[in-house]
Amino acid sequence: MRGMPDTTDADGLTVGQVSARLGVTVRALHHWDEIGLARPSLRTAAGYRLYTAGDLERLHRVVVYRELGLGLDGIRTVLDDTTTDVLGALRAQRTQVAERIDRLQRLGTGLDRMIEAHEGGPLLTDEQQAAIFGPGWDPDGPARARRRYGDTTQWRQYAERSASRSPEEWQAVADDMAGLDRALGEAMDAGVLPGSAEANRLVERHREVFASYFPLTRQMQVCLGRMYEADAGFAAHYDGIRPGLAMWFRRIIDAGARAHGIDPDTATWDGGQEQRR
Amino acid sequence: MRGMPDTTDADGLTVGQVSARLGVTVRALHHWDEIGLARPSLRTAAGYRLYTAGDLERLHRVVVYRELGLGLDGIRTVLDDTTTDVLGALRAQRTQVAERIDRLQRLGTGLDRMIEAHEGGPLLTDEQQAAIFGPGWDPDGPARARRRYGDTTQWRQYAERSASRSPEEWQAVADDMAGLDRALGEAMDAGVLPGSAEANRLVERHREVFASYFPLTRQMQVCLGRMYEADAGFAAHYDGIRPGLAMWFRRIIDAGARAHGIDPDTATWDGGQEQRR
DNA sequence: CTTGACCCTCACGTTGCGTGAGGCCGGAGA
DNA sequence: TCTCCGGCCTCACGCAACGTGAGGGTCAAG
């Protein structure tokens, strides 16, 4: 044991040995040396860094504080400046860590909501989905929604908005949608005619409510109107409010579009969109 | 309302206006333009950037994904590459976030432990402290410890080690300390003499156990031995194990130091330490 | 003497902008 | 008309903590 060639009793360890012992990279040791945070007190004739036991102690302390997330400058003051309030620095770091955890957790729920929305998950209850996209929803609904709307930009935008909207806020949107349905029924009762100011107001209101899901151009709205009339599920929903409402709704949408210089007969879902090169 | 000079209907917003609307800095907009992530589709004759409604949509999407913590490269692929698996990217990001939260939480408990140690908090129970530093501990103990050891490097090192040691591990150390006490008593019973191999082994054992708290040089150990004999509290503790053990312990420490070429009569707490410039 | 594992010193790359420096543009007041 | 002020432009460096070669000595072993 005495004569064994053991490195533990050498008067210095090289970077590689220190690296292995402390679990830090050689480059980090170089870096800490460069910036004067922890330099070896010895060098061989060839210029090799040699870390003494004292150097190792300091390095160890650096590692500890680094694992606690302190910046190298902070570590330097904690180690060198004996007048520093270590406790204060630690507490400051602690609150910072708590804040970062908070931020990350909010970020996580945002991600969760967005993932759920992409999956067509429970963000929208069946009733909510029915209120928005029509009533043709079975338990298989989300999958149908994806089949209907596919992997379109609009579906993505809907999902993206989920990230920052809580279920309650989505409920509010659904309520708005229900309120619009009621208003449509009442307007039809009152004999509101396509193209009238009242009808156009309702069309704009529909566009605005829908904009909570994704930006809806007037051209897109025209296409939606068509679908409300043509699709059995949607037609059933609107005609369930008032018989004939689906057709009437399509007509006031068309008239509204015309009032904005759009020919509803040539309108397409992607019409008038800029290209992205 | 028609003739009002309103910017909302302009065919483009300048960087400042976009910045105000989206809550991002002008520099960020410049940056995203530079790297081609989100560039304005228009420029004025003077070279001012003008962001159209379509540009704003894209910018908004960028902001959303950025808030979710995606890198700009990731955002670019999500926005541009329609074949990208957005869900996959989101889920990957989610697990990453979860991991980061984990890391931060471990880091937080490390900080907590270290802060508690600095405060002399409940890391060590009164019994544990007594076992280590001697029995002179009242409820006021921690404060006394700080008065005794002050704001020394050693106390800091003890605190630093707390960061990575759980209470259970500290208990193990305390157990080792208690075991050492027993061994000392038995050795004294057996008539072990200072300077004997058995005595030196015990001295080394004491140094190693103590090294769990902070690095203990042999010189420091000599000083500790003195204190064990001189301090009423410590003396009472060791003499409580066996009458005369405090003095005997001091003697075997001195002899052990001498065996390593140290003169116990001239040993100081800071002796033989390298200087930090 | 050569080999292969280490070591050295530059020196640029990374991420997402912050922060000036130096200068042009555009609307309002003297 | 001149001037002023706020906003816009383009460089271009800085940052935090190293990662990652490039190009070249050193050291113990075969």
Beta strands of chain A, count = 2
- Number of alpha- plus pi-helical segments of chain A: 13
- Any low-confidence stretches of chain A, pLDDT <50, length ≥5? 1-9, 134-142
Distance N to C terminus of chain A? 74 Å
Mean pLDDT rating of chain A: 82
* Largest β sheet strand count, sense and barrel closure of chain A: 2 strands, antiparallel
The greatest interface between two protein chains, and residues involved on each side, is: A-B, 46 and 46 residues
Order of helices and strands of chain A: HHEEHHHHHHHHHHH
Beta-strand residue fraction of chain A:
under 5%
Report the helical percentage of chain A: 55-70%
Biggest sheet of chain A, strands in spatial order? Answer: 1-2
Rg estimate of chain A, integer Å: 33 Å
The helix/strand class of chain A is: mainly alpha
What characteristic shape of chain A results from the CA principal axes? rod-shaped
Task: List the keywords.
277 residues, DNA-binding, 13 helices
Describe this structure in words.
- Two copies of one chain form a homodimer.
- The first copy, chain A, has 277 residues and is mainly α.
- Chain A has helices spanning 15-22, 26-34, 53-67, 72-80, 86-118, 126-133, 141-149, 153-163, 167-189, 197-210, 218-230, 232-241, 245-259; strands at residues 42-43, 49-50.
- In chain A, strands 1-2 form a two-stranded antiparallel sheet.
- In chain A, strand 1 and strand 2 (49-50) form a beta hairpin.
- The first copy, chain A, is rod-shaped and about 100 Å long.
- The termini of chain A are far apart.
- At the A-B interface, helix 3, helix 5 and helix 8 of A face helix 3, helix 5 and helix 8 of B.
